[in-house]
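Incident log, structure service

09:12 report received: a user says their structure output differs between two submissions of the same chain.
09:20 pulled the input from the user's history:
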Amino acid sequence: MSHAVLDRSVFDSLFSRASKWPSNCKLNRFARDIAGHLIEHPKTGMLMVLVRSGEFLAATGDSPFKEDLPCYYLGVHPVTNAQYARFVSESGHSRPEQADWGTPVWKNGEFPLAAAELPVVCVSWNDATAYCKWAGLRLPTEEEWERGGGSRYGSGSVPFGGNHSSGNVWEWCADFYGSGAIRPPASGHYRVIRRGGSHDYEVPRFRRDDFGFRCVGGENKSR
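09:34 re-ran on a clean worker, output below:
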């Protein structure tokens, strides 16, 4: 399975070209706006973009509704194999070599060099949460995930620079799953997973070769 990845070189190239565009060009304004809101997380090296506070059309239930969220930082792309390997080395956490469905990328404690910058897969919700805790970050709520660019309602664009591709991995969210609920329940057996405009759920211990995750930074004040 092929997984998309978006790294700093993509943004650097965009910013370089933007300097040659007319000042009133929409792409020029977009590139410069994103450039001013990017940070590199000091512990993991992951590129994160500031998602500004504001109202958006959420779709966590069966019908869209308006929601207002505070600002937070969102990982530009899902956590990579290389980033996860550092976590495994420093924490002693188990390697993603087992799958309940599909074929793991990691074998005998290693992953192919060509997969270093691809999203780590075969990670459960529990694994993803452990990584976030180690990094001093957390999993996004479903609303934060959508706000960053993955809403089912809208053009499918990525207004804040989060790379939510429909061909990429499913991504764990912090929320419990509630069928048809506007607000996630306080407890449950399943956790939300998202990919592009798709919405699903799974048990927290489950590992698949198309399950990954990304991180957010900032206090969760959306509940």
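09:41 both user submissions now match this output. Likely a transient worker issue. Closing.
09:42 reviewer note: Helices lie at 8-18, 26-35, 81-91, 125-135, 142-150. The chain is about 25% helix and 20% strand.
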